[in-house]
Write a structure and sequence with these properties.
This protein has 254 residues and is an alpha/beta fold. It has eight helices and seven strands, in the order βαβαβαβαβαβαβαα. It has one domain: 3-Layer(aba) Sandwich (Rossmann fold). Bound molecules: NADP nicotinamide-adenine-dinucleotide phosphate (NAP).
């Protein structure tokens, strides 16, 4: 039986929860954390009922709290074992339906998605050094380019993407592997807030399988899925501004 250990931030729902289940089913020791104790308890009940697994730990950890992040990582390392994979998946999301520049929303998303991710990386780098383990950051293809109405969320995802690329080089030198995960539209609590029809929408279970296979069996830096939608966004990414803006104009977005 494998004794490998994965820590999943934001494991109480959506992609993180489904991925926790997938890793448990494959005999990994799984630690899920999130900021809301009630959500975590519910997630634990479901996972224990379905898996009857003794390999599950749930720890409350709000990633915006630097000290709580440090304590959580030290607890896992000392009481459970060395983290093989840290899946930095936790994020806040709020669609900007009114197309307003809402500074509080920007601040919230920067705190959770950006600073929270940085706090995790900062604490992980000290314990993971020279172990050739993996930190995987869940970003989004929305970070490839600026999209209408997606300024706050898109900006944090673009920053995560840029950060992952940078750290890929820098952390190689200290023996830590960096990966980035870019899912297309996945049906979760977060995307259920969207008011538009999401093309190529997939389930969280679909995402979990792709993440597991990408992290465990492949050495590629970027894990992305489903192929078609992310590939289309990758094409948009390389278009010159004139064509990119023209396309959005044609779609009536400004
Ligand atoms: N769904 C998609 O289509 C899609 C597409 C591209 C990328 N992504 C990315 O995939 C990841 C997961 O998203 P999802 O769709 O599964 O969303 P979700 O269901 O809303 O899950 C988000 C998770 O993050 C946790 N979280 C939020 N704030 C936190 C905090 N301050 N500290 C710790 N945990 C916190 C939430 O739990 P608590 O509320 O209990 O804290 C929850 O477990 C995110 O990084 C998202 O940007 C999603």
């Amino acid at each position: 039986m494998s004794t490998k250990i994965i820590w999943i931030t934001g494991g109480s729902s959506g992609i993180g929860f489904a991925t926790a289940k997938y890793f448990l089913n494959h005999n990994w020791i799984v630690i899920i954390s999130s900021s809301n104790n009630d959500k975590l308890k519910k997630a634990k009940e479901i996972l224990i009922n379905e898996n009857k697994s003794k390999n599950l730990y749930t720890l409350k950890c709000d990633i915006t709290d630097k000290n709580e992040v440090k304590k959580t990582i030290l607890f896992i390392e000392n009481e459970v074992g060395q983290i093989d994979i840290a899946l930095l998946n936790a994020a806040a999301y709020s669609p900007n339906k009114n197309q307003e520049f809402d500074i509080e929303n920007y601040e919230l998303l920067i705190d959770v998605n950006l600073k929270g991710t940085l706090y995790c990386i900062d604490a992980l780098k000290d314990v993971m050094k020279n172990r050739e383990n993996t930190i995987a950051i869940v970003s989004s293809p929305i970070g490839y380019r600026g999209w209408p109405t997606a300024g706050a969320y898109g900006m944090t995802k673009a920053a995560q993407l840029n950060l992952s690329e940078s750290l890929f080089f820098d952390f190689k030198k200290i023996g830590i592997s960096i990966k980035v995960i870019n899912p297309g539209f996945i049906d979760t609590e977060a995307t259920r807030l969207n008011s538009f029809k999401m093309p190529f929408l997939k389930s969280a279970e679909f995402a979990a399988e792709k993440i597991y296979k990408g992290l465990v069996f492949k050495s590629r830096f970027e894990i992305y899925f489903p192929f078609t939608i992310v590939f289309i966004v990758k094409i948009l990414r390389i278009l010159p501004y004139s064509i990119y803006f023209f396309l959005w104009k044609k779609l009536g977005k400004f």
